[in-house]
Design goal:
The complex is a heterodimer of chains A (483) and B (444). With 483 residues, chain A is mostly helical. Helices cover 67% and strands 0% of the residues of chain A. Chain A has 19 helices and no strands. Chain A has helices spanning 3-9, 33-45, 51-77, 92-103, 105-116, 126-147, 173-206, 210-219, 227-260, 272-298, 307-337, 341-352, 356-368, 376-380, 382-409, 424-447, 453-458, 469-473, 479-482. The longest helix of chain A is centred in the middle third of the chain and has 34 residues, at 173-206. Chain A is globular and about 70 Å long. The N and C termini of chain A lie far apart (55 Å). Chain B has 444 residues and is α+β, with helices and mostly antiparallel strands. Chain B folds into 2 domains: 12-191, no CATH class; 288-421, Cytochrome c-like domain (Cytochrome Bc1 Complex, Chain D, domain 2, Orthogonal Bundle), CATH 1.10.760. Chain B has helices at 28-40, 57-60, 68-94, 107-133, 170-179, 199-212, 214-228, 303-321, 333-341, 355-358, 362-371, 390-407, 411-422, 436-439, and strands spanning 18-25, 46-49, 157-162, 184-189, 288-289, 292-293, 373-375, 378-381. In chain B, the strands form 3 sheets. In chain B, strands 2-3-1-4 form a 4-stranded antiparallel β-sheet. Chain B has a two-stranded antiparallel sheet with strand order 5-6. In chain B, β7 and β8 (378-381) form a beta hairpin. In chain B, α3 packs antiparallel against α4 (107-133) and α8 runs parallel beside α9. The radius of gyration of chain B is 44 Å and the shape is elongated. The chains are: A mainly alpha (483), B alpha+beta (444). The interface between A and B is large, with 82 and 89 residues.
Chain lengths: 483, 444
Amino acid sequence: MGLASMISRQPEVDNTISDPTSRPPLVIGQHDFATVTETVARIPERPRATLAWKVSFAVAASLAAMFIALTGYLFVTGIGIWGNNSPVFWGFPIVNFVFWVGIGHAGTLISAILFLFRQHWRTSINRFAEAMTVFAVVCAGIFPAIHVGRVWYVYWLAPYPNPMGMWPNFRSPLLWDVFAVSTYMTVSVLFWYLGMIPDLATLRDRATRPLPRLLYGLFSLGWSGSARHWHRFEKAYLFLAALATPLVLSVHSVVSFDFAVSLIPGWHTTIFPPYFVAGAIFSGFAMVVTLMVPAREFFGLKELVTLRHLDNMNKFILATSFMVGYAYLIEVFMAWYSGNKYEFFTFLNRALGPYAWAYWTMVICNVAIPQLFWFKKCRTTPWMMWIIAIFVNIGMWFERFVIIVTSLSRDFLPGSWALYKPTIIDFLMLIGSFGIFFTLFLLFCRYLPMVAMAEVKTVLPQAHVHHRHAAEEHAPSELEYAR
Amino acid sequence: MNDNSHSPTKPNSHQPHYVGVVARFGSPADLMAAARQISAAGYRYWDCHTPFPIHGLDRAMKIRPTILPWLVAGAGAMGALGALVLQWWANGVAYPLNISGKPFFSLPANVPIIFELTVLFAALTAFFGAIVLNGLPRLLYPGSTAASFARVTTDAFLVSIEAKDPQFHPERTAEWLRNLGAESVELCPAPEGDTTIPVAIKRGLLVLAVLALLPPLFIALARQHTTETPQEKPRIHIIKDMDFQPKYQTQAVSPLFEDRRAMRPRVPGTVPFDPHWEPPPEGFLTGKIGSDYLTEFPIRVTEEVMRRGRERYDIYCATCHGWTGEAGPYDGMTSRRARARGEATWVPPASLTGQAVREQPVGKIFETITQGIVREGVYSMPPYAVQIPPEDRWAIVLYVRALQRARAPYPEDFQEAAATASTAGRGLIHDEPMNSNLAKDRRP
């Protein structure tokens, strides 16, 4: 299947115009249940990967391999290979951790919160966003683990009875973080996998080759679409959504406690939890757009993931951009209003000090550039939104850099001030973490159903029973005959 | 669960043996109508199979509400309680960490982990509860041999009725389903071949299960063994880098420096920090001049030194020698515990107030503190030169002298006590040199 032919066969249809008299269709084109399955399932069923996929995978896998090699170098040599040094002991590793864990928030937000609010447009993008969440949390989890120095003692973080008679300090936000991120990882994987079981069964039933049939069969656990099973499945899915909703808000709050519970100026503020959560949703949606725009292009999913979906996500980005911008303003205001000279100095230092370039990059990327989404042209033109989303990704990485590095490099004691100098290894490991992320993501695109087929079918008009209710009530009873 | 209780029966070669019938309906609405009819007709072993959940179908089929919500709620409560108890036990009881004097058990600090574990337990239960209650993973369904079953995960809306249902009759049930509006009806023969799990796999799993018990067994044995004889090292000690740390010892060779000495000489041009530093008096560091022990203190003896000596004695010496320095029942905790445990190598501390030590010159006591006591090549008392600076060692010697004198007073002490009693209210603190009887070494 040629790449160019696929793209040209799928013209962009603008379905973003709202007609108040009728509900706009969530899926465009003449789709029925079979064609939805066909559109999604043919992607993992291709016997050979496309050239574009192979090239992308080769690049991503090389970067991932580089990351793994550098991790080995780190274990053997020690964290001196990074630029972390007094007073900035939390350099790139923690910046990257917060960046990735923030990205991992949109998936669960789309899956769980929009599910609870019955936002049916989520069905086309939730699988994709959940996968992105899981892979982003994988990247996020690596950094604090390798940041502990003696990584072979990382299991000491776990509370388990041991012959040393030691227990971790449960009053430390760093331990809350361990629990929050690992719980989030577990629940995200469960949520992702539970929703995927019916679709894996579809792939199993369609598989023609023995190995895919065996593997999809194994992981679909013998799903038969039984109504009794659907009954419990839907309950479980609802519970996972209801549990994941407060969880997703708690995880980045707990991450923000790592900073807010300390006494460093610029960190010790009560706005941090909501500010971090808004930033996480902001960056997560930007990453979904970054990945979704090329994916729907290359894999022919334009009728399922329509411009309306992208338009909705861009509105989310615009809204959360405002929240983030508001947090930037309030932080500065509170620093001045509190009368705390250290606090106010920190913000002056951020805006005018040696890291002013990072601060203004952050402000421009996160607050100024997303304002373009006021224009409908920008919200509905894939290449434009892709570029804006890339800027948001950059801006959100810099936000974490600004928070962590500026506060640490100049705190209370001018005598201990020093600038942070990342090493080449720091940069390579940042790039390498993208390699890990994209390797996993490309494998997902190649072998798993990218769109939740069963869920998309429920939002097709044909799935609605109500149109035929009248006929049902008057159907002749066959009771007597059966007896 | 009635949908899971089916067991395939052996096919009969003479007449076709059916496990059930599968009917395919054209739309969710048709399926829903049929489901109402089948449910009303009183069928028990039947099910609908759909590519996506159809809302209202569970009501039409009269599916009883699942127990899952209760399981999830229970697991969530368990998670909350478990997290609370874990944190209370770990930080409040088993391993109290003093952090800036904050309370060991503080509920607000425990809320995040209580929340996380509530969610974790509830989510795991929601997932595995749904899987287990659905009887998954599962290989075969009564209708899965039907051709239309292959499309059930794509676009087929099926009804399956099992042969074991009391109302099932192959032809009549099929005909009835056709009249309900089924597009096609298939009778499903029992699957061919053996559908049970091969014996070899069962045995293999059994062997694996037994083998999996070995590691915990070894750990249990190791624990049993080591709890009998106390060990110096932790029982399970995988990584040894806390025992063998890369560091330079005194006088070691280092390739880092040109002179290959790990100890660095004083930086040229630097001077001692204390401008009033003077060489210490003779015998101050060793307790003796030549081979003669000092009989008088080489420091100025004051009330302040006495207080310092008492404080240092209570820190370093009282753990073995006891608060009064007397042997026997007044020993310190370490000694008492060693005796209670019947430690074979333990040498009980000498009485500091007994005649033997009373008769030692101060220099000798100082030397004992400095060098420890070696008996048969083993320290029966460790040297304290590293922990206690010389001034403090002299202060301790002074306090030991005071303890001795409290135990065996001089006659004039009684006169002085009487004088003190007559001038009640006289302050004890004075910076005058104390009674020269004490400062001087005077044997009774």
